[in-house]
Predict the 3D structure of the following.
Amino acid sequence: MPPSMGNYQHEHTKKWARAVAEFDGYVFVTAEYNHSVPGALKNALDFIYAEWNNKAAGFVSYGSAGGVRAVENLRLISGELQMADVRAQVALPFATDFEGFTTFTPSATAEEDLDVLIEQVLAWSTALKTIRH
């Protein structure tokens, strides 16, 4: 059965669905892997459906190019899950936001971008809550 049918068979899927259902919006933090999202994140999104509907999504990404290609894919995925993705995004390139490519040292710009992203996710989460209830 596809997840869109809502007939979840496994207890771990039901537990995941309950956890996701509790919130009004999400900020996803992801690496870029082969110009896309890591498989574990894709599975986490794909295993359930209705619990994502009409909720806001924001994206923080990291990688050699800041993870922007992963976010391009996430925007398509979130659209199919009937999520509203916000315009703001935080892209963290290894060269500028990770000392020695390993230690997270966000720039002032990244911190400012995160503030805007959080504001947008909160605004959209609040607005979308009205159509879910």
Remarks:
- The chain has a mean pLDDT of 96.
- The helical segments are 11-21, 39-46, 68-80, 94-97, 108-132.
- Residues 108-132 form the longest helix (25 residues).
